[in-house]
Design brief:
The structure holds two protein chains of two kinds. Chain A is mainly α. Chain A contains nine helices and no strands. Chain B is mainly α. The chains are: A mainly alpha, B mainly alpha. At the A-B interface, α1, α2, α3, α4 and α5 of A face α1, α2 and α8 of B.
């Protein structure tokens, strides 16, 4: 499952990154546009702080632009790792103790266990993320990092500070739980829609 | 293997970016520009040097620049050239593009003493020699060894540095040296490119903290500036003039011999937050 949102930069990544480092705004824009949507979707796990945290993340990224070395995957992983740290900061600023004993814990994920509105026929992106937020925090993070951020298991493990095995388990469980949310008892969306008519 | 009912969810999660998700790039772009402003003088200045100093230099710079395309550190070439037509002696001579100067991947070679970093190194060297209380001129840092080597010997450093150490009338404040804006935005860091990468910092200022990262909050790794809260951490970048290493914005503490140097930013590994100038650490600029 290596689906990701937005275009992957691919072979040109090195050049684009170098350009951005050089102050080339078009190059930077490319990096930004490539990751901002996934970032927002991922950060939605934390609730309404997503926009704020995304902005903070980019500032951090720009300031640290010279320190980064790596390929595109490493880049994505770094940006998302940075995002997680910024969510912790944001949570603290809001007076919420994110409950992180380790920086890697998923305490910042504000999952919503009960959701009044359930699945609709055609799922919007926001609705889909809302579904994911109903998962246990770790599973929610793993699912989004895999699906939305397009990170492979090892990178997800790095970002979260977990073992690849744990990541795989969380992914598996998360997806299964997600499927259950979408199609309780195996009833698909389409079938559910038919029943409602 | 995946449950088919998941398909709509996955599809929705990976849908094309919406307009809203593509808004808000402006602050990041502004930050990039700010970082760039503290970087060197940029292409325009480079062209200026090219015309001012003739084809040879222009070719050298151009050559260096061209060679750097893939590496993304083009700007560094003109970073520390003082205005006022003063060129470090070695610039159009042996100073062909050197990996240490150019590379954006930190190879621990320290700043190139013949290149743009010369000024900073010389300044630091002189400051240290004026301040015998510190480690004197003998210093194991890569940076200083580069200087010594470029000069042709420890005793020749004075002569080697003579041309850059005279007071600069034009007061080239910025020279891309990350300015007195001590509160780096990691703009300082960017300038560090001129002298090799971030790791150099440790070398050049022996008395300073080896890496700014650890001085920030412990959770930081990689490029994360938790230090955005204490920006100077990384901002110090490996600038060439570690003259006032401890004083973020006011180069007052140390008997800075370089009056004109836009040092503030540079070489201040001690982040704002921590604030203390450990006495034992006077590298003495």
């Amino acid at each position: 499952m290596a689906v990701h949102t937005g275009a992957v930069i691919g072979a040109e990544f090195e050049t684009v990154l170098a350009g951005a480092r050089n102050g080339d705004e078009a190059a930077f824009a490319r990096l930004w546009r490539d990751l901002n949507p996934p970032l927002l979707r991922y950060l939605s796990l934390g609730g309404d702080t997503a926009d704020e945290v995304a902005a903070e993340t980019w500032l951090t990224v720009v300031r640290g632009l010279d320190t980064f070395t790596g390929d595109e995957l490493g880049w994505r992983a770094w940006v998302f790792t940075t995002a997680r740290r910024r969510t912790v900061d944001a949570a603290r600023r809001r007076g919420r103790e994110a409950g992180l004993s380790r920086k890697t814990a998923s305490g910042w994920v504000a999952t919503v266990r009960d959701c009044a509105d359930d699945v609709v026929d055609t799922l919007s992106t926001q609705e889909a993320v809302a579904l994911v937020r109903r998962l246990p925090p770790l599973q929610a993070e793993v699912v989004l990092l895999r699906v939305v951020a397009g990170l492979p298991v090892s990178e997800v493990a790095d970002v979260l500070g977990r073992t690849p095995g744990a990541v795989r388990v969380a992914a598996h469980r998360g997806l299964r739980a997600l499927a259950d949310l979408v199609a309780p008892g195996g009833v698909t969306l389409a079938e559910a829609a038919a029943f409602r008519e | 293997m995946r449950d088919p009912s998941l398909a709509p969810v996955i599809r929705a999660l990976t849908a094309e970016p919406t307009e809203r998700e593509l808004e808000g790039m402006a602050p990041a772009l502004a930050e990039l520009r700010a970082r760039g402003a503290h970087l060197s003088t940029g292409p325009r200045r480079r062209m200026m040097f090219a015309t001012a100093f003739g084809a040879k230099l222009g070719a050298t710079l151009g050559g260096v620049a061209a060679g750097l395309v893939g590496v993304g550190t083009v700007v560094l070439v003109s970073t520390h050239l003082p205005s006022g037509a003063q060129l470090p002696a070695g610039l159009d001579g042996p100073a062909q593009p050197r990996p240490a100067v150019v590379s954006s991947t930190a190879t621990d070679r320290g700043p190139d003493a013949n290149g743009p970093a010369k000024h900073g190194l010389c300044t630091a060297w002189r400051a240290r020699s004026n301040n015998p209380g510190s480690q004197g001129n003998a210093d194991g840092s890569v940076a200083f060894s580069n200087l010594v080597e470029a000069a042709g010997g420890a005793d020749k450093v004075a002569a080697f540095c003579a041309d850059v150490l005279k007071p600069r009338a034009s007061g080239n404040q910025g020279g891309g040296n990350g300015h007195g804006n001590g509160h780096g935005k990691a703009t300082g860091k960017a300038t560090g490119k001129a002298t090799g990468k971030a790791t150099d910092k440790a070398k050049k200022q022996p008395g300073d903290k080896p890496t700014d990262k650890p001085t920030d909050k412990p959770t930081d790794e990689q490029g994360d500036e938790r230090g955005d809260d204490t920006p100077t951490g990384t901002a110090t970048g490996t600038e060439t003039t570690p003259t006032s290493p401890k004083t973020p914005a006011t180069p007052t503490t140390t008997p800075t011999t370089t009056a004109t140097s836009p040092t503030a930013l540079t070489g201040t590994p001690v982040p704002q937050g921590s604030g203390t100038v450990e006495p034992g650490q006077t590298v003495g600029p």
